[in-house]
Amino acid sequence: MIFNLSANNTIANHFVSELRDLEIQKDKARFRKNLEKIGEILAYEISKTFQYERKAISTPLAVTSVFHLASQPVLATILRAGLPMYQGFSNFFDHAESAFIGAFRGEHQLDYTFDITLEYVAAPHLEDKNLILIDPMLATGKSILSSYASLLKYGKPSQLHVAAAIAAPEGIDLLQREIPGVSIWVGAIDEKLNSQFYIVPGLGDAGDLAFGPKVG
What we know:
It is built from six helices and twelve strands. It is an alpha/beta fold. α1 packs antiparallel against α2 (28-47) and α2 (28-47) crosses α3 (83-92).
């Protein structure tokens, strides 16, 4: 399934708009906060698909029953760009375990193709868990595929949810072909990838905008 926040007019569109705006992007703290807000909204939407169970609690006046999550998901993010969105998810799933992946694009070849380099993976047991893999930009989908493959050595999740602020159709298509049953949750689906495999209209490099340019 694909869930697109921008398919309906909600306050989420305002946050997505600010992420894209060249002038507003100059404020790194605001850029990070907007990614965090998108993460919170997507966390709420994903929570609707989870299993819940009744639990008795005591209020000052009576005993009542409420629904609680039957089990917490595992939150996984790709460093460094995914950290602000991850924070939004962890604000809502505040008892969730976490996984972290160091993945980035290798140097572009003459035809602008590239490989994904993985340098770091840390994760809890994932067997039969709901796994939410968070990356603000779903462009080609290669980073998500490589990251998911690296996580499978920790167990096979019962369900994979991929969360992104901005996605390209090409990345969505790749994930649907390669990961049967994946659920994709995005703030907006853009037009296409350009010849260098960046999302158009997109918003630029989310990691640089959130934390400053990389050296080397």
